[in-house]
Amino acid sequence: MFFQRAKVRFLAVVAAIAAVGLLAALITVARRRLQVVSELNSLRTACERGDGVSCQRLGWEYEQGGRVDPDVDRARGYYQRACDAGYGLGCFFAGTLSEGHDDPGQVRDLYRRACRGGSPEGCTAQRRFEHQRPPR
Question: What span, in angstroms and rounded, lies between the C-alpha atoms of 56 and 102?
Answer without folding.
Answer: 19
